[in-house]
Amino acid sequence: MSIRFAVIAAVLLLGAAACAPRQDYRGITIEEEKVNLVKVGQSSEAQVNALLGSPSTISTFPDWGTVYYYISSQTDTVAFLAPELIDQQVLAIAFDKDSKVKEIKRYGLKDGKQIAFVDRETPTRGKELTFLEQLFGNLGRFNSTGAK
User: Fold this and answer.
1) What's the pTM value of the predicted model, to 2 decimals?
2) What is the C-alpha to C-alpha distance for residues 20 and 7, in angstroms, rounded to an integer?
3) 91: which DSSP letter?
4) With contact defined as beta carbons under 8 Å apart, do 84 and 77 qualify?
5) Which residues of 89-127 are buried (b: 16+ CB within 10 A; e: fewer)?
6) Rounded-to-integer distance, Cα 3 and Cα 19, Å
7) Is the pLDDT of residue 145 over 70?
8) How far is residue 117's CA from residue 29's CA, in Å, rounded to a whole number?
9) Sign of the four-CA dihedral 120, 29, 93, 43
10) Cβ distance 49 to 82 under 8 Å?
């Protein structure tokens, strides 16, 4: 009786541990003290790079000037379910034509859309087959007269 109880308890514990959420942190989290050292109108691109490190991405619109984006996100994943975005922070530092800091902005999860770093689905063309079509699709396609 006690061995059966121990086995059942072990299975339940393993099942509960498998369903515990896993937290993932991605990107660059910048400390507030370092951001406070960046001064609008005074700090240059080189100083920001030295102080905060390389940005996650840099703007691609030359008419707007250079903008550094430092992006970080936190997700929770439970078992086999899709990850759920818990928090996302974006620090945007814009530079003027003289490469001096023009503006510093912070954006959170409530300020915009979720940023998808990687899209894990590749679209394909063609017909979507049902389960039964996949299961019985090859019946009758083989010619047994030529096989030996």
Assistant:
1) 0.61
2) 20
3) E
4) yes
5) bbbbbbbeeeebbbebeeeeeeeeeeeeeeeeeeeeeee
6) 25
7) no
8) 16
9) negative
10) no
